[in-house]
Write a structure and sequence with these properties.
147 residues; alpha+beta
Length: 147
């Protein structure tokens, strides 16, 4: 299991290939990559993501361990970036490996829902008209209810 909270960009292909190559006993590997998207009306210059070093990694590791146990995963990878990111940049990656695809998909979704709603990150959208902190969304919270 690896959890990385980093400012540096990551190489999606290298991370996915490295993860898959290091897994034994899996019949499925699922990856998901989140990308900074523009505002619905356009004009997003950047998103700034803040976190508390140590606390964030500890929280994500705990939820990754929970997912690994709950779905009997062979391995888990979570990468989440912080700092100033522009639209189109990769913000995060989740990879799960399990003996069966259903478990790999469900665990990846669970981790993505957690990262979106509960991981200790604070996001600010910066546009020409100013900056605004991103508020929690009801649909993101609702997604956690199914778990």
């Amino acid at each position: 299991m690896r959890v990385s909270v980093q400012s540096a960009p990551f190489d999606l292909g290298a991370e996915a290939n490295g993860f898959a190559a290091g897994v034994t006993g899996a019949g499925a590997v699922v990856t998901f990559t989140g990308v900074v998207r523009d505002l619905p009306q356009g004009g997003l210059e950047a998103m700034e993501i803040e976190h508390y070093p140590g606390m964030t990694e500890k929280a994500i590791t705990a939820i990754a361990e929970e997912a690994a146990h709950r779905w009997a995963l062979c391995d888990v990878l979570v990468i989440h970036r912080h700092g100033r990111l522009r639209p189109g940049e990769m913000i995060m990656m989740v990879a799960t490996a399990a003996p069966h695809r259903t478990h790999a998909f469900e665990a990846a979704e669970y981790l993505m829902d957690y990262l979106k709603s509960r991981a200790p990150f604070w996001k600010k959208e910066i546009a020409a008209g100013g900056a605004e902190w991103v508020a929690a969304k009801a649909e993101d919270e609702d997604a956690l209810d199914r778990w």
